[in-house]
Amino acid sequence: MRALVSVFWANPNTMPPSDSDTLPDGKSLWLCTILDWTVEREIISHYAPRVRPGSGWSHGWSPLLDPPKRWSGTRKAAARRRNLRRRLEKAVPLFADQFEEQELQRRPDYFDPASIEREQCNKN
Predict the structure, then answer these.
(1) Do residues 67 and 61 touch, judged by C-beta distance below 8 A?
(2) Which of 3, 27, 45, 120 is the most exposed, having the fewest neighbouring CB atoms within 10 Å of its CB?
(3) DSSP secondary structure of 49-115
């Protein structure tokens, strides 16, 4: 797992001392991207600056995650129809076909792949 480890100013009520050599963000003393978690502790122990507890500096760790994968409009529409059908079969098995048609007519955009794609594009 990839991660970003850092030494940063963790006191929200104050600023880092003016004599500290911070990175351009003004709050980080040291940043390192770890590509292999098996050597994380070794890298931190060798390269991270030593900080006194209570001094305001803290060690941080943040995972570097891949962006979430989005379903296509076709897949999402199929899942919505399948879930609708499953709910109707459970609640009213004899009238499931009739209620499914009514729901598809009542909310055609909700079950239409093209409408779902447009909606996802508008959100981003």
Answers:
(1) no
(2) 45
(3) PP--TTSSEEEEEEE-PPPPPPPPHHHHHHHHHHHHHHHHHHH-GGGHHHHHHHHHHH-TTTT-HHH
Task: Give, for all 124 residues of the chain, the pLDDT tens digit.
Answer: 899 999 999 988 888 888 888 889 888 999 999 998 888 889 989 999 988 888 899 999 999 999 989 899 999 999 999 999 999 999 999 999 999 999 999 999 999 999 999 988 887 6
Instruction: Report long-range pairs for 45-49 (Cβ below 8 Å, ≥24 apart).
Output: 48/5, 48/7, 49/7
Q: How many CB atoms lie within 10 A of CB 16?
A: 19
Backbone angles phi, psi at 93, to 5 degrees: -60, -35
Please count the other Cβ atoms lying within 10 Å of the Cβ belonging to residue 110.
15
